[in-house]
Design a protein that fits this description.
This protein is an all-alpha fold and 244 residues long. It has nine helices and no strands. Belongs to the cullin family.
């Protein structure tokens, strides 16, 4: 690849236009599932990668640290101007749907950014002991969004699980999607939030749910009927214990 000196501001302006194109597409259309769709042509993607490459490898001066900082700045700005405002103030299933949508769109942006900044992953992050482009994005999302919203997200999911146990109609697919979002937040520097947050909360909630059910049945049902109600719960909890 031919190396030529690139002015940082001119180079970043080109990169910023590509980033704006990604964000505008997500804002206007959402993420589509057509595997054949390409937001950038191969030549456009290569041109942006080459700009990053030249900014990082030219000798006087090289801008790899500045590029990495600008990448983090973009993610922080995107979260604070788009992701968090869309989630704050929502509750119940509306919050869960926004959680799924926001993370899906964020991952779409993250994939393109990982492609554009591939050179930083290959030669910068190891040398300076920084998170990879992907992990930096996940860390920022975890620390700024998940940590703020996890209480409401977890309590809503547990409420839906209890409603499902009671036979009420529940959007199980939505619950599954939210749990997948939380599981996908894992990175090289983070434990899986599902294991650290959701599993303990689920076990605590299950214990409280079963205790309340059994107390109500014991108070209101004859003993034979009480035992008929308790037995399926005993089987379910035994199975849960075996799976831990």
């Amino acid at each position: 690849m031919a190396l030529r000196v690139v002015d940082f501001h001119a180079g970043w302006e080109k990169i910023q236009r590509a980033i704006d194109r990604i964000v505008s597409f997500v804002d206007d259309n959402g993420v589509i599932r057509d595997e054949n769709f390409r937001l950038f042509s191969a030549s456009e993607s290569m041109s942006i990668y080459e700009t990053v490459y030249n900014l990082c490898t030219q000798k006087d001066p090289a801008y790899e640290k500045e590029l990495y900082r600008r990448y983090e700045d973009f993610l922080n700005h995107h979260i604070n101007t788009r992701v968090l405002p869309a989630m704050r103030g929502k509750s119940g299933e509306h919050l869960l749907r926004e959680t799924v949508r926001s993370f899906r769109d964020y991952k779409f942006i993250m994939r393109w950014m990982t492609l554009f900044f591939l050179y930083l992953d290959q030669f910068f992050v190891g040398r300076y002991n920084r998170p990879t482009i992907r992990n930096a994005a996940l860390l920022i999302l975890h620390n700024q969004v998940y940590e703020e919203m996890k209480g409401d997200i977890i309590s809503t999911v547990l409420s839906l699980i209890n409603e499902d146990r009671d036979g009420k109609p529940v959007d199980r697919a939505l619950v599954k999607q939210v749990l997948e979002v939380v599981f996908d937040l894992q990175s090289e520097t983070l434990n899986v939030p599902y294991q650290t947050d959701f599993e303990p909360a689920l076990l605590d909630s299950s214990g409280a749910y079963y205790a309340l059910k059994m107390a109500n049945w014991l108070q209101n049902l004859p003993y034979p009927e009480y035992m008929l109600q308790v037995y399926p719960l005993f089987v379910e909890k035994s199975q849960m214990a075996l799976n831990i």
